[in-house]
UniProtKB/TrEMBL annotation:
It comes from Oldenlandia corymbosa var. corymbosa. Residues 1-29 form the signal peptide. The keyword Cytoplasm does not apply. One of its GO terms (cellular component) is plant-type cell wall. This is OLC1v1027767C1. Transmembrane segments: none annotated. The keyword Signal applies. Keywords: Glycoprotein, Signal. SMART domains: B_lectin. Residues 50-170 form the Bulb-type lectin domain.
Length: 461
């Protein structure tokens, strides 16, 4: 092995140089002391009304780094003593509901006096008072030099050149702000809340896959595709981005379009220009135009709701009140039939022309209410017989948009026999004209249809 000899004179120059180089390499990635922060979840609650009827505490900082109109970071809660670090959209003097558009820790709430901090190492951390880390960005020693909340609602950690080391836009929860994307195969799918009161992961998800942008219902651990935007599998979409643009490219234009921009393997989305002043790049492969509105729609969000519907809400601050408006919905009078929403009529109900009209029962169709429920079935392992009651002239929400008409040609007797032997079968829809049968793993909403379709609902004797 080759050896090197250094004279004392040469070491006099080399050692200080190495020391300076080591010092520079270890401090280069650190956050300046003045850019670090620790914020505590304590103090008075805000007095204004927010979405989910949530209580909230705004995060305070001398330089107000947690606010960029109309977005503000807060701790909020719908259950006493359990707090979510969330991004609020809208300001108190709107005289309108303020919305929650991003959560850090909705499945793991923190307690009173929890801390939200950015240390010298560049890691952004949410921790309980006992020091237990609940959520973090995992960006320690990766070159972070600062934190910033951008005007488009993107929360970023950046290096000294302004390049994003981490951004909240890569981690949507149930909502896409303008410029946010969903990438293929569930890398960052949308998952609904359980309910307005319960912010934990709910039963609905929206996932980009090889065959499209698909809506799923989680039925006891089994995902059931119930709708979505179908695609040619050969197109190989890699991401879908929610966007809003002026129709004539003039930011002051009165006409704006709400868009879903699609990108595939042949033409991926252009890489973001990592400037703290730019919200998102412009460019597309193909586009789904959701709706056109007659005012500036640059502050909009696309959300998968706890009821399984997808809606867009748009903020327009030039009006005196009601500044948030629903500008688009997937299940609506102008897109996909409203009765196709799985829980349009709750756990079990009959829908006609967008309205819940009856509660099916063995005694016939009763008046609908939100307490209508499907029959209770005994466990498959329990001894006992089952029977079915018929509802003529209906189909299921899975019939048209997702599963289709099921298997067949098959007789109604053979279909009944299959459902008898299937523990997960809650009933079936039989199409007499084409002799096809759709077994139902979940009931939900039935839809008034032609008399050639009949639902058979299983119940225990």
């Amino acid at each position: 092995m080759k050896s090197y000899n250094f004279s004392p004179f040469s070491l006099f120059f080399i050692i200080p140089f190495l020391a300076l180089h080591f010092h520079a390499s270890t401090t280069e990635a650190q956050v300046p002391q003045k850019a670090t922060f620790t914020v505590y979840n304590q103090g008075d609650f805000g007095e204004y009304i927010t979405e989910y009827d949530a209580g909230y505490r705004i995060l305070r900082h001398d330089e107000d780094i947690f606010f960029a109109f109309p977005f503000r970071l807060c701790f909020y809660n719908t259950t006493p003593g359990e707090f979510i670090l969330g991004l609020r959209a809208g300001v108190p003097n709107d005289e309108d509901l303020m919305r929650w558009v991003w959560d850090a820790n909705r499945n793991h709430p923190v307690k009173e006096n929890a801390t939200f901090s950015l240390g010298r190492d560049g890691n952004l951390v949410l921790a309980n008072p006992d020091g237990r880390i609940v959520w973090q960005t995992n960006t320690a020693n990766k070159g972070v030099t600062g934190f910033k909340l951008l005007s488009n609602g993107n929360m970023v950690l950046h290096d000294k050149k302004g390049k994003f080391i981490w951004q909240s836009f890569d981690y949507p929860v149930d909502t896409l702000l303008v410029g946010m994307s969903v990438r293929r195969n569930g890398i960052n799918k949308l998952v609904s809340r359980t309910s307005d009161v319960d912010g934990r992961d709910g039963k609905y998800s929206l996932v980009l896959e090889n065959n499209g942008f698909n809506l799923y219902l989680n039925n006891s651990g089994k995902l059931i595709a119930y709708n979505g935007w179908g695609q040619d599998p050969s197109n190989r979409l890699t991401s879908i981005r929610f966007n809003a643009e002026p129709i004539d490219q003039d930011p002051k234009s009165a006409g704006w379009e709400l868009l879903l921009e699609q990108f595939n393997e042949a033409k991926p989305p252009p890489p973001p220009r990592r400037s703290l002043l730019q919200s998102f790049p412009v460019g597309r492969d193909s586009t789904i135009i959701l709706r056109k509105v007659n005012y500036n729609a640059s502050i909009s969000f696309f959300r998968l709701g706890s009821d399984g519907n997808v809606r867009v809400f748009t903020y327009f601050d030039k009006v005196p009140y009601l500044k948030w408006s629903e500008t688009w919905a997937f299940f609506s009078s102008y897109y996909v039939r409203e009765c196709g929403q799985p829980e349009k009529c709750g756990a079990f109900g009959l829908c006609q022309k967008g309205m819940c009209v009856a509660c099916p029962s063995p005694k016939g169709l009763l008046g609908w209410s939100d307490v209508c429920a499907p029959p209770t079935l005994k466990p498959c392992s329990a001894a006992g017989k089952v029977d079915y009651y018929k509802i003529v002239g209906v189909e299921h929400f899975l019939n048209r948009e997702s599963t289709g008409n099921g298997e067949g040609p098959i007789t109604v007797e053979a279909c009944r026999d299959k459902c008898n032997k299937d523990c997960e079968c809650k009933g079936f829809v039989y199409k007499q004209d084409i002799k096809k049968c759709l077994r139902l793993p979940v009931l939900g909403t039935l839809i008034r249809d032609a008399n050639t379709s009949t639902a058979y609902i299983k119940y225990s004797l």
